[in-house]
Design a protein that fits this description.
- The protein is of the alpha+beta class and 143 residues long.
- The chain has two domains: 9-92, Arc Repressor Mutant, subunit A (Orthogonal Bundle), CATH 1.10.10; 94-143.
- It is built from four helices and six strands, in the order H-H-E-H-H-E-E-E-E-E.
- It has helices at 11-19, 26-36, 45-54, 61-73, and strands at 42-43, 78-83, 86-90, 96-101, 106-111, 135-138.
Length: 143
């Protein structure tokens, strides 16, 4: 039996929100559609807000920040802090690392199998290492 793909414009966004128990408000649905309908990417709150405005969505920058943090808290996004006051939200939540191009602020994924982190210190008593995030800062032309 052949399955017919769901052609509702917000189907993927709605499914993602329901899967993590977030109420699918109009603004959450709209932002989820912008974030998740397409390839994995890294986006700042300001970039996502500009995309929302260009798509004629009425949403404040504060709502974009709040929504990105809600999506991060439930595991839909990973926050990547590249320096104080500069963070990106990554739609790829798998275990991986990043190259950070300082000149243009671009992040590029590095598969976790391409990097080895050895001799980690013992974590403080009563804690366990959850994940290791490596950001390699690069300069120069990208090919």
């Amino acid at each position: 039996m052949m399955t017919i793909p769901d052609t509702r414009p917000y189907a993927r966004a709605l499914d993602r929100l329901k899967a993590v128990g977030l109420r699918p408000t109009r603004q959450r649905l709209a932002l989820a559609k912008l974030l998740f309908d397409g390839a994995d990417r890294h986006v700042s709150a300001e970039q996502l807000h500009a995309e929302a405005v260009a798509a004629e969505m009425r949403v404040s920058l504060a709502t974009v920040y709040n929504t990105l943090h809600q999506f991060t808290a439930v595991g839909l996004l990973r926050e990547v802090v590249v320096e104080s006051g500069r963070a990106y939200f990554d739609t790829n939540t798998t275990n991986h690392h990043h190259f950070y191009h300082a000149e243009d602020g671009k992040l590029v994924d590095i598969d976790h199998s391409r990097l080895s982190v050895a001799a980690l210190p013992e974590p403080p008593a009563g804690t366990a290492i959850d994940r290791v995030d490596v950001i390699i800062r690069v300069r120069g032309h990208q090919s």
